[in-house]
């Protein structure tokens, strides 16, 4: 760790120092302007994580969404980042390299200059096109399965109209299902096909195969394509990934219209996920976009750019399902939404191929290639081992979540093993159990189709209602709850003794030298939250989800089912709380690189939500659709209950007396061993000053309430 620098001059002794000013004494680890894909924030990588009641997003995404609604939420942090970025840039080589990159960008014409706005402006349209096709896919799958397995029910081409009951119908589920008059364009009845368990079983098998294929291939290839983007450019990788997306669209539309003449019938749909998964799928596109935004934005403005990106993505995915339902209602053609989505994807691909400039400078890609070649030369493994390691390298970050040995040995005997800390491992297991629910969306939509007779129009309305409820909870309700019930921030005391550091009432002492090193401390926002409060909030959110899914299994009308779904949307506080607790567990046990932590959590997210979850729920619905279709909700209740049990066994470690190492990398320095150091911001004759709730006062536009107490003479 680098040694801290002494300030050029001591601060004025008699000047009161507010909380926001004192924060500048604690520096953050310097961030690179051009991080790799691995360093991108823990953001949602799929539509289900944004608009479904089962989807969970992390603390970073929730904060960015809140910043999108309240634009100046992080204004102070941005200012601090700007100041510290200039103060801590001491490496001359890095400075010259950054200057060369800036010179390259300044030499480009404005239309070839990389900027985050190239993708931010198009985000709502692409997310809208994707989300409007979620519900109609189930209807197309149902028709294809009916054509192939129950040809006596139908005869004609795909493209149906529906006289269905409203989403708010009070009719019992089975009655609503029977009265829904589904028919193809030739007016032949379709109600038998929709409610046939054999057809639903075939639909579940098809959806399971497609989702699992894309999920497994995406896990195996996303990391590879991400590393390639560092060496050969972001836009090149995105150009390949959008090819897979277009092939999937073309395969879907051609199968929907000509399934009877294509080889395999409805199973020809598998061609799309196979190609798309090999080219990285949607997760590679999102990772490349996040890297592009990070490459082209200043560190101080990066949080605002990401908040715009995720906010507009959330907006598009909330509007898309309703827009798709309206279009289907007006045109009486389910395929209209797929035509529109394909047109948007074609425009998107053309922009990436011919318009959007590359974000990485040639010298950056050359440097990444050189580092990669050096790593290959130094690797002392055989070709087979190297291939095996490369294929399964995405699982490597999971080792960070394994139980760690902390604390003294049991009984104080040095011959015994150290005590193991299982809390982070249990938290990862709980997170995985919750993320499994993302894989249930297809089964849940099939259940709604089977039990309530809903078509894609009603499913689209339901999706938008639940998505809007999640947005309200994450941007309004959850911040209010956090503000009202979080523990109050302890006051800062500026003492009269020069050897005593500036600390809160209950915080451990901290030396400036330790503070100016690469501090592993959580981001400033974590000082406003207690890990205990976040852990209890996560437990409460899971309890609310358990109640919601239990009631959904018992619902017999569409309106009651929708109300229960909205209740479950208000349990989405688990994601942000889980991320905060994970940060506290990691840093309090000596962890320093939060990027590795969230990288490991993102692996858990991908494996559970894209591979294990869809397979588990697909198999469950396929086996129980004829006898007990509510089993998918019982499975969700069981998974959430197991996650809650894991959370109950988590114990937060107590803060260490010194949470960072000294400059020498050895033991932490005692609090009062260097009275000659500049450990305070006041003179020895400065009176005791207590600043209470300065953040709250400043947030309301007032100055901090500074209350001097009795002057203690030295």
Automatic annotation (TrEMBL):
GO terms for cellular component: membrane. Residues 21-31 have a biased composition (Basic residues). It is found in: Membrane. GO terms for molecular function: transmembrane transporter activity. The chain crosses the membrane at residues 206-225, 237-255, 267-293, 305-328, 334-356, 422-441, 461-485, 546-570, 597-619, 631-650. It is a multi-pass membrane protein. It comes from the Eukaryota. Residues 503-519 have a biased composition (Low complexity). Residues 671-686 have a biased composition (Basic and acidic residues). Keywords: Membrane, Transmembrane, Transmembrane helix. Residues 1-47, 491-528, 659-714 are annotated as: Disordered. Coiled coil: none annotated. This is Major facilitator superfamily (MFS) profile domain-containing protein. It comes from Fomitopsis schrenkii (Brown rot fungus). The lineage of its organism: Eukaryota, Fungi, Dikarya, Basidiomycota, Agaricomycotina.
